[in-house]
Amino acid sequence: MRLLLTIALLATTALAHPGIGVVVDKAGNVYYTDLKQVWRLAPDGTKTVVVPNVHTHELHLDADGALYGEHVTYTGPQDGSGTYHFRVWKRTADGRVVDVVPTTAGFRQQVTFVRDAAGNMYAAGESEGESLQVVVRKIDAHGRSTRLAGGGPAFADGSATAAGFRDIRWMAIGQDQKLYVIDGPALRRVNPATGAVTTLVRALTEFSPNPLKWDSRHALMGLTADAQGNVYVACHTCSSVKKVGRDGRVTIFNRSSGGWSPTGVAIAPAGDKVWILEWRAVSDVRVRAVALRR
Question: How far apart are CA 263 and CA 243, in angstroms?
Answer without folding.
Answer: 14
